[in-house]
Every structure is written in structure tokens, then in C-alpha cells.
Amino acid sequence: MSATDDVLVSVRGLKTYYSIRGSFLDRLVGRTGAAVRAVDDVSLELRKGEVLGLVGESGSGKTTLGRTLLGLVPATEGTVEFEGQDITHASEHDRRLLRRRMQIVFQDPHASLNPAMTVAQAVGHPLEIHGLARGREEVRARVADVLERVGLAPAEQFMDKFPSDLSGGQKQRAVIARAIILNPVLLVADEPVSMLDMSVRAKILELMLALKHDFDLTYLYITHDLATAKFFCDRIAIMYLGRIVEIGPSEAIYADPKHPYTQALLRAIPEPDPRRTIPRDLPRGEVPDASRPPLGCSFHPRCPKAFEVCGWESRDLKELLERRWAGLDEEGFEAEQAAVGPMEELDVAKTHVRLEAHGGAHGSDLRGLLDRARAADPAEPFWTGVQEMRDANGALEIDWYDPVEPRLLPADSVEVECHLYDETALAEAAQRRQSRIPQ
Amino acid sequence: MTAVLEVRDLRLWYGTARGSVRAVDRVSLEIDAGSVLGLVGESGCGKSTLGRGILGLLPEGARADGEVLYKGRNLVTMSPRELRRLRGPDLGLIFQEPMTRLNPLLRIEDHFRETIEQHDSKLTPKDVRRRSLDTLGRMGIPPTRFRQYPHEFSGGMRQRIMIALALVLRPSLLVADEPTTSLDVIVEAQILRILADLKENFDTALLLITHNLGIVAEACDRVAVMYAGQIAEEGPARDVFADPKHPYTRELLRSTISLDTKVLHSIPGAPPNLISPPSGCHFHPRCPDVMRVCPAHDPIETQPDPDRRVLCWLHGPEREIPEGGTAPLEREQIAVAEEA
After folding, report:
1. B197: which chain A residues are within 8 Å (Cβ-Cβ)?
2. Which of the residues A43, A236, A271, A306 has an alpha carbon 20 to 30 A from that of B203?
3. Is the residue at A396 inside a domain?
4. Residue in B309, B302, B311, B314 with CA at minimum distance from that of residue B235
């Protein structure tokens, strides 16, 4: 898509990495620490007047993406354009001017207001910081206006109250008032209702929709909640471990989710319908460590549909063994663990490992162990990724297929980053399946 | 089915500078052995106080009156020492924040040893280990991680460990106070799956406190809806959700945003403070169906169906409603800003 007049924000190849400080020794010898890839090569456009939902679990990088967009966190690579201007490396002076145009509402209304400032002081503060009102009277008049607009009416009743006098919903209204008092064009709303009671969420969302209409706002709505996003957003971007895995119009995402992760997120939402029970086939585990992402597709270790090319590797073997051991009795676990020995070797991502047999066991014993694991759960997708297992002199050598990196590709009316929708990856997997060495 | 716990006319209150807060106001409940009872309501309705009050875990200065019967004994009048002996092997609690409830300096192994030895000092170290590993395994925590520290686990794993710690003593009742609030939606569903399966695996009854009606619908056998310290409605989860009798239950269900939500809905106003709640039915200022009798007289509990009860004048008893009491009450609109 070319940059057109209706594009408000354009993000290209954006990466935001946080470096982890290494140990003292690392610094002494000049080794640099690892990096958390909070945002890992994201491109998207935000069109004027739309609500784009950025949806993902904690650790998906959605908040960091929102903050990088606003310049609250420096970008490691890539560009952010706002109204056609590259603002990735804007000076502090330019940023100040930009902040009149782009504002943010944070998740926790209780932490977003200074407890020592009255509502009028807090909401009027941006006017003073930016020198946009002359004198106390004008500030108060404009604060009264905006308070009425966000439903804190009559304004006189709220202006001189302190945050501790307000309920959660009222605080969030005050925070929204403070964000819109400068007449911004872009509002980044980071989980604006997730700290509020169910009975209040609808009211705040309705307020935000009304404000968007009245003030011609564009929203980036950051949330983990696909249920509120469905109501609120024109388009949805699903994030997982720093990457957008699916993006498209809301109707399409909800009617026909493509990515197995999107499908899982939708299935996991608790519905107030007692005929439904909690699904049993949910992805296992949690979002992995973004400083050591899985090979290939980041979602593959949890994905029920993963196959040959998705990036199977040594760490998946360790998880497989640990999952198996959690279900064995103590004797069974101890016997198997004694044969496998320490598993540090498996912590480093590799598509080839040599698993030494311990405690008097042989390579064939390890193979027997893995065969039992496979027989216990033949549908486990891990096994599709194993290219070959060889007995080698008291050890077992395992090769996995090389991972194919997933790309965001069009599929119907959305874009999705999953090999299931990538013809070349599917063909590659089929070819590997045919040439697999019989086990 | 036999009840593992019976709460009768329980009142819990504590004094503040502004007056006494009646957090739980004459509540009666029964939890059947091996069943899951959901306790729902907005923040500030007394759910957590009730959950803790049942276990005798109230802050200093709180007072209790009424009966909490467990195996024929009243926990309200029991000495702190006796109560402490029951907590763990009989009554367990899972808190909201798994991050802060594990001691960062203790290995998982030590958490289990400490818990088990507190209540059963005769077990050998080998038995302690076996029992711990067995419970952890059922929660999906591999034995290879038994000697790790809490910080080495993810949030969902920590909550699994907390649940395992509560279950390792095989309590007959577990109180779980918003156990999934700080977790992501997929992990939340994983944890709920575990809690809903407790019956099959541990024969433990569960009191699940939550503000999320979706959770109750999917995980609970029965549900109690709490408002302003009282049980507004109680019954089998399926029936209550299909046909809510109390207007508060109905409004709460309508305001829950789910994937099926077509129109946003909310309840005007906010739950009252519990120092001086509204007269009559505490919900009357927010109730769309309010009648003349509602602010004037305290509602009386009725049974619209044999297995259900509700505290609302809409369901009578008719002989107690004064002449003209069922006429709608005229009142001013509630201001938008009067909300939670």
C-alpha cells in the first residue's frame, strides 16, 4: 500500500529491542548481553478515523509497539511516520509539539492521576505545559468543558475533588479528559477498561466511541480482550511475541480467524453461556521468553496444527520430556531422567542434538524412551518435525527439519503469518514428508 | 448430596471512622461436597470478605456473627488455634496474585515441605516428596523443576503451584478468590479447566469468587449473586443464567461484554457504600423494575423454583406487599457520573 492522504500513522519494519544487562564478567570482557525483542519487525498503517485494535497476551509487545509509536520508547530499527513525516528520531522539541497531536490513556486509572492534584489541576495540566491557555480562568473554563464532555457533570462538582474521591470509572473519565483537552488526532488507549468492573466497561467504551465521533479521533486500542475489541475496532492486529501474526478487518477476523493463535484466543474467552464448557484443546504453556524466541514460527511449540517446517528444535524436545515426566509416577520419572541425564544441552536452540545416554543406559534405551513417548501421544505435532534419529555409540542423535521463517501473507481479506497459508511452505513440508527417512 | 459447608445467617462487619461497614449481611449458603459454587458481583459487594470470613481470615477488628458449619462445628465461635489446625488439611485458600504469594527465597520443594510439615509432621521426607511431586504433576508442573525458585516460573505456572500447594493437603473445601484475574486469557482457561476438574481429581469442593460471569457459566455448578453484602439470588448456574430472577443478575448478565454482545449495556450508578446502604432493597436506586414497596420494606427471600432462591419483591411474597406496593416507583434519572 502506498502512503495516501488518509494514512495517519505508518510504521515500517519497526523493531524495539530492550537489551538485558549481562553479568559483570560479560561486561568486563566486552560481551554484550542478550536483547528482548519486544517488537520484532512490525509494519502497519493507521488510517484517519479508524480504530485499530492491537490484541495479544502479556509479553506480546503490544504495549511496547504503542509506546514506540508515540516515541516514549526509542525504536531500534525501522521508521514511524506521522502525518507523512518521519518522527522516528524526532528531537525533544519536535516531540513536545507532536504530543499535542498524539496522546495516551493508560490501563490503571488509579496510577495515572497524581493523588496530590485535584481533577481540575490534572486535566488542565497539559494546557499549562504547552502554554495553550491564558490565565487560571481560561484553564478552568476549558477543563469544565471537557469534564462535561466526558460525563463528569456537573463539572463544578468534580473539579476540586482529588483522585481518591473518585470511583475507578470516574478516574478513567478524568484521564480521558486530560488526554483529549489538547485536541489530539491520535489516541493510544492501552487497556483502558481492563481494570474496571464489567458494569462500567460498556460505559467507558461508549464514551470513547462518542468522543471519536465528536473529535475526529483515530484510536490505537491496545488490549488482551478480543470481546471488547470486537465491539470497538474497525481492524484488528493480533500480536504474538513481537510480531503481527494476523491483521485484517474485524468482521473477517471474528468470522473466520486464520491463525491457530487467533483461533485459540477466541476459543478461550469465557462466555456467559452455561451450555458451553471450558475447552480442553487449548494451546499448552505460555508466551515464551522474548529474549530467546523459538526457531521458525514463535507459536509453534504451543500450536496444535504445527508441522514439519514450523521450527522444531532441541528446546521442544526438553519440553516434551518434561511434559511426559509430569504425568509419570516417581519411579518412572526417575528411571527416565537417569537415562537422559542433565538437559542443559537442550536449552540452546539447535536442529541437531546428540543426546548422551547416562546411568549405564545406551542410545537404544533413549530411542526406546522416545518411542514410548510417541506411542503415548501419537498426535503430538513435535514428531512431524523430526527428520531422523540415529543410535550413535551410547548416544542418540536427533535431526529436525530446518525451520522456514513465516511471512505475513495475504489470505482472503486478511494477512496472516502462518505456514498453513503459505503455498511454498506447504510444498516444502510435503516434499520433506516424502523424503523422510523411515524410522 | 451432602453439604461440606453450611453458612447460616452470617454477618461480618468492621468498624471505621465513619461507622461500621456491614460487608456481609445475613448470608446463608451451602456448598455440596465436590461441587463448584460461583460467587459473583461487582467490586465492593462483599464477595472477598465473605470468602475470607468463611475461613476465619478477617482483618483485626472485624466481627462475625452467625454460623459457618463445617463437619458439624461452628467456625465462627472456634478458637483461632483450632481454626488454624483446620486451615490446610480441611479448608484451603487460593489468592488472586500468584506473583506475590510465594516466598522468593524458598525453592518450590521448601514451600511444599513447610506446608506439609505444618500439618503432618510424621511423614518421612520421601513421602513428602512423593506427595508433592504427585500433586504438582497433576497441575502439569514437571518434577525436574521441583528445586527451582518462584522467579524461574511464569505467571500461569506460579498459579498452578499455588493451587498444588493448597491441594497437597487434600482439603475438602477450597476458596479461590479471583484466581485468574492477573492471567492471560489462554492461561486463564487452562487454570479454570484445572479448577473445574478438581472434583474428579481431588474430590474438593470449590468456592470460586469472581466478577466475570463468563467464568461462572463455564466452571460452576451453582452460582450465588451478591449485592451490597447480601445474596440477591442463588441457584443452579444453568438455570440462573438462562432465566435470571433478580433484576441485578439480569442487568449484570446484560452488561457482560462477550463475543455475542450486540449492544453495549451498563447498569447505572454504583454499588452503595456498606456503612449506610439504601433502605429496603439495597439495589432499588439502580433497579429498572423498582416498585413502591422496594425502598420502603426489606425484601424477603422466596423460592421461585424448588432449587432456587431470590431476594426481590418481584417474586413476593404477595401477602407481605402493602396495597399499591407493586406500582412502579417514579424517580429521578441517575447522573451518568454516579458510577463505579
Report:
1. none
2. A271
3. yes
4. B309
**Grid cell at residue B14:** 468492621
Instruction: Look at B259 and A226 and tell me if their CB atoms are within 8 Å.
Output: yes
Fold of B3-104+167-240: Rossmann fold (3.40.50)
The answer to whether B266 touches B254, Cβ cutoff 8 Å, is no
Spatial contact of B30 and B3, defined as CB atoms under 8 Å apart: yes
Q: Do A200 and B242 count as a contact with CB atoms less than 8 A apart?
A: no
Biggest alpha carbon–alpha carbon distance for chain A: 86
Residue B287's contacts (CB-CB under 8 Å, 6 or more residues apart) are B247, B248, B281, B294
CB-facing half-sphere around the CA of A374: CA atoms within 13 A: 14
Q: What does the pLDDT profile of chain B (340 residues) look like in tens digits?
A: 688 999 999 999 988 888 889 999 999 999 999 899 999 998 889 999 999 999 888 888 889 999 999 988 999 999 988 888 888 889 998 877 766 778 999 999 999 999 898 887 788 889 899 999 999 998 999 999 999 999 998 888 898 999 999 999 889 999 999 888 878 888 888 888 888 888 777 889 999 999 889 889 888 999 999 999 999 999 999 999 999 999 999 999 998 888 888 888 888 888 888 888 999 999 999 999 999 999 999 999 999 999 999 999 999 788 888 888 888 887 765 555 566 5
Cβ-Cβ contacts under 8 Å, B146 against chain A: none
What is the three-class DSSP state of A323?
Answer: helix
Is residue A131 in some structural domain?
Answer: no
Q: What is the CA radius of gyration of chain A?
A: 26
Domain ranges of chain B: 3-104+167-240, 105-166, 243-320
- DSSP class of residue B328? B
Domain count along chain A: 1
| Residues of B in Cβ contact (< 8 Å) with A169 | 270, 339-340
For an interface test with A, the pick among B257, B259, B308, B336 (most A C-beta atoms closer than 10 Å) comes out as B257
Residue A151, in any domain of the structure: no
* Domain assignment of residue A342, given as a range: 312-400
- Does A374 fall in a domain? yes
